[in-house]
């Protein structure tokens, strides 16, 4: 079943008069990397505008320094628009930031068309090797989607199931942790089973103005983040504790954190910071919090870490004793 079939289905679904955005991504031409060893070390600077019309656009961010090479894509679609992807040899984990979408895809495994309605906060994984479309049929609402794309994924790894999987809504979930400074919610293959085949996990976090996500480290996987709203800072240390990056981030910025590098995010004073992110291994590899009650190192390197992150020893002591502020903290 080829792309012409897909197009026919689309026309049937939508009728006439919709604007069409055609996207094709994962082009492979090689560009020169501008190695930038300054404080922006882990910002993803390479991106490609793969679709751009008056009906919307799609930008893919990628960084060849990352072994897993997950790509982050942002898609913005105007009301009453349609985007078609003929064939994507990669797993695509989508998150609806705002708006509503009608998604349809033909899975190469079973040649069957699956159609599903996605709402704000929904996570959905399109199997590798699918042709798919996304339609924004609303007449007054933009659609914004962020995707994590896993190109190294082999084809045909996804199980053929009788009923296509449902979407998973992150907004309806109770956050994994929450206090007056913010919240964080994450989903992996243990909660949303399709993610088991890709090994991709997703998190969404919110920091109120001036708050900081406690320094932590992911011992197993690369973490990716994209600023959905607001602005702040992301600070990363080398595994040996010296400073690797400390940079301002604002809406649309994409960064990655290699495994074993301690890091934290801080919302600017007077501005909140909202992040969406992906990890490359969904095997329950949540980052380990370094500071605070849940800390694995609270009895060891506290002072050095505190100095690296610009927090006083007294503040660390306070954090360690303050259970309820263990994950999201006010900045000094
Ligand atoms: C993208 O499309 C918009 C509207 O059609 C146009 O104004 C803009 O210049 C385009 N951007 C690029 C980089 O081509
Ligand atoms: C820590 O590791 C980084 C990166 O390998 C290196 O550039 C830096 O000099 C190291 N710092 C110390 C104090 O060893
Ligand atoms: C980072 O943002 C802060 C707060 O907005 C600002 O004071 C500072 O100058 C910025 N730093 C850089 C390097 O842009
Ligand atoms: C985005 O962040 C700004 C600044 O913190 C805030 O005023 C605004 O309400 C946020 N918008 C959304 C949609 O959360």
UniProtKB/TrEMBL annotation:
It comes from the Eukaryota. This is RmlC-like jelly roll fold. The keyword Signal applies. Keywords: Signal. PANTHER family: OS03G0336100 PROTEIN-RELATED, RMLC-LIKE CUPINS SUPERFAMILY PROTEIN. CDD domains: cupin_7S_vicilin-like_C. It comes from Vigna unguiculata (Cowpea). Residues 1-19 form the signal peptide. Residues 40-161, 168-317 form the Cupin type-1 domain. Coiled coil: none annotated. SMART domains: Cupin_1. InterPro entries: Cupin_1 (IPR006045), RmlC-like_jellyroll (IPR014710), RmlC_Cupin_sf (IPR011051), Seed_Storage-Functional (IPR050253).
């Amino acid at each position: 079943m080829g792309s012409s079939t897909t197009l026919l289905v689309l026309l049937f679904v939508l009728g006439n008069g919709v604007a069409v955005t055609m996207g094709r991504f994962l082009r492979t031409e090689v560009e020169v990397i501008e190695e930038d060893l300054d404080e922006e070390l882990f910002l993803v600077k390479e991106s490609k505008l793969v679709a751009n019309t008056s009906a919307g656009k799609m930008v893919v961010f990628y960084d060849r320094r990352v072994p897993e090479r997950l790509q982050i894509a942002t898609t913005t679609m105007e009301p009453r628009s349609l985007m078609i992807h003929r064939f994507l040899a990669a797993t695509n984990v989508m998150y609806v930031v705002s708006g509503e979408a009608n998604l349809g895809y033909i899975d190469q495994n079973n040649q069957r068309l699956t159609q599903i309605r996605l709402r704000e906060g929904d996570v959905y994984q399109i199997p590798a090797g699918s042709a798919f479309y996304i339609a924004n049929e609303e007449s007054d609402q933009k659609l914004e989607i962020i995707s994590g794309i896993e190109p190294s994924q082999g084809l045909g790894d996804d199980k053929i199931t009788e009923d296509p999987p449902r979407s998973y809504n992150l907004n309806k979930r109770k956050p994994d942790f929450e206090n007056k400074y913010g919240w964080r919610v994450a989903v992996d293959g243990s909660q949303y089973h399709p993610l088991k085949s890709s090994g991709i996990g997703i998190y969404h976090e919110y920091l109120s103005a001036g708050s900081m996500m406690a320094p932590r480290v992911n011992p197993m996987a690369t973490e990716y983040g994209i600023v959905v709203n607001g602005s702040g800072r992301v600070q990363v240390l080398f595994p040996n504790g010296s400073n690797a990056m400390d940079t301002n981030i604002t809406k649309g910025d994409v960064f990655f954190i290699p495994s074993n590098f301690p890091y934290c995010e801080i919302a600017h004073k007077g501005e909140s910071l909202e992040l969406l992110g992906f990890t490359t291994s969904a095997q329950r590899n949540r980052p380990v919090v370094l500071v605070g009650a849940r800390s694995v190192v609270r009895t060891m390197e506290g002072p050095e870490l505190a100095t690296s992150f610009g927090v006083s020893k007294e503040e660390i002591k306070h954090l360690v004793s303050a259970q309820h502020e263990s994950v999201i903290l006010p900045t000094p």
